Amino acid sequence: IFISFFFKKPKPKKKVTVARGASGARFRRPGELAAEDEDEEIILDGYENESDENDDDEDDTAVEEVAEAAAEEEDDDDGQGVHNERVCRTLKDKAIIMMEAKGVFIDHDEEKMALQIFPRMAGLARRVHDNTTLKERFVSLVKKNDDLQGTQRTLTRRVPTRWNSDFNCLNSHFHFRDVVEALTSTSSLGLRAYHLSDDQWLMAEDVCEVLLLFDTVTRVFSMKEVPLIVDVVPTLEDLREGLIAARDDTINDVSNIVKIACQASILLVDKYSTFADNCDIYLIAIAMCPDRKLKWFKDHGRTPRQIKEIEKLIIEKWTEVYSPDEDEE
């Protein structure tokens, strides 16, 4: 959902039904919102308030290319992409309203600038990979740049179906920033549509910092070894706390759209946390973990009453499973 703030989405072409989410969790943190508006909703073709203000801009070639590619992928996903997009839009709208109440707004210029970042980076990576002339020019510039460190020698392509692909694509652009700017500023190469302004590079830095949070989480859950149940809720908690820190950052000049995207992501984490809290085994696993126990819940914002209820739950479950039968007695 975070990354959806930086891509122009195509209008959906399918009708799907979004099922109601789970009921409220028993052990939600004070102030945490439940996902409660995902009632049965029929998704019709297109969105009522879809804006086409950017469609006629000359420099939005890359944006349109990525939107069209997303539409083609959506045609083959049996409605899953439309479902995900609707959930994202619902939480995005909530996040925007919540942040507006705090005086944080997205103006048209900032939104337009944000929507161009990833399409331009992804488009340039694709052009460099697919065009022999551009590839040779890129390699030549890399060889001439003595400041480049490491073994990477090409831009990372964005693959929408691959975890952390957006982060890797963005990160590689920062690695080759001097080369990228040299390519996109050379008029004879026809890559002006993929040029990023200084403000866009600054915004991209903010985005990269947040995506690093997701990169850490997805690396944990994509390992060959299945993550222990005891790590699920704490991992979501760490992600949530990192997103809150990014949203409320007062030291760095974080762009408003990044802050609002963080808020939308927090709402989605809360949604998944609700599902986890409704499954006793996650709570029991944390409480029984030697280095966590009930103290973990106290350290992460649960009230004394909630902790007492968790303790009661554990005792009841232990008694149910391990107490001797009357016949044995």
From TrEMBL:
The keyword NAD does not apply. GO terms for cellular component: nucleus. The keyword Zinc applies. Keywords: Metal-binding, Nucleus, Zinc, Zinc-finger. GO terms for molecular function: zinc ion binding. It is found in: Nucleus. Residues 27-84 are annotated as: Disordered. Residues 34-79 have a biased composition (Acidic residues). This is Uncharacterized protein. It comes from Crepidotus variabilis. The lineage of its organism: Eukaryota, Fungi, Dikarya, Basidiomycota, Agaricomycotina.
